[in-house]
Amino acid sequence: MSDIVNPTDKTVNPRIGPLQVVVQTRTTDRPRAPRREIDTAQVARTREQGYRRRKTTNAVMLGLAVVCAVIALIPLFAIAVYVTVQGVSALNLSILTHSQNDVNPFGVTLGIGNTILGSLILVVIASVIGRGRFADAIRFLCDVLAGVPSIVAGLVGYALVVAITGFSALAGGFALGLLMFPVVARATEEVLRLVPNSLREAGLALGVPRWRVIARIVLPTATSGIITSMLLGIARVTGETAPLLFTSFGNAHWTWNPLQSIGALPQMIFTYSTNSPYPQQHQQAFAGALILVAIVVLLNLTARFLFRQRVHGRT
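^ that's the sequence the OP posted. Answer follows.
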């Protein structure tokens, strides 16, 4: 207590400097501000107003999202219902087992089975082209064509394949492969990024080479996601028509030869719906459209199921 300085005393304690005396004097003389009491009722009202504002904003934005979704779904359901109603009446076993070359006494084709087979062959060729070093050589070209209309892929296929080998299933598969690469590559890249880095680090910490970590750890972990990306790419190119007009050209006969021209469902639908005067072929076009829509929907549902299984497996 001997070190406390009296503000009125002009003597300075040798243990306390003059500056400290001034500071202590000002600190002692400063009056304390009265403590402001918190108005709990005002705070409650402010919180209530903020909650109501956020709730109203959420309801408005949710309503706009629902309206936009309904606007997008109306034409989708309209197309699906119209194609189903028109296609079911013409869909039968005969239309699947006969080719476009099989005609009735009036010269009208009896079936479109060859186009279904042709579409499957084209999709298989497009998927096979994506393997090996050839994919690395044209990956840059695929990235460039990602945002280009599909007819440009048909022109590229015509210039690079048709000009050398003629119209064929190989040329059509090449054109479809150009459209498939960007979808599969980007989706696969995102799937590989989902693999936890801890798995890679654990393999490297054990002294496993990097290529073996990728082959034995990363790829098996992402297998379902890679399959999903491939199914999405197949669904993307299954309904393409423009590239096939310049490459596969169409064929009314059953054929397995990839070096010959081949029929396809999208091309048949385009030809029958625009250039045919026969009502029966118009119905066959709707039946083909129904089959094509069913194939695309099935592929998308399969891809979604596999992706969901992968996500559930991780969680």
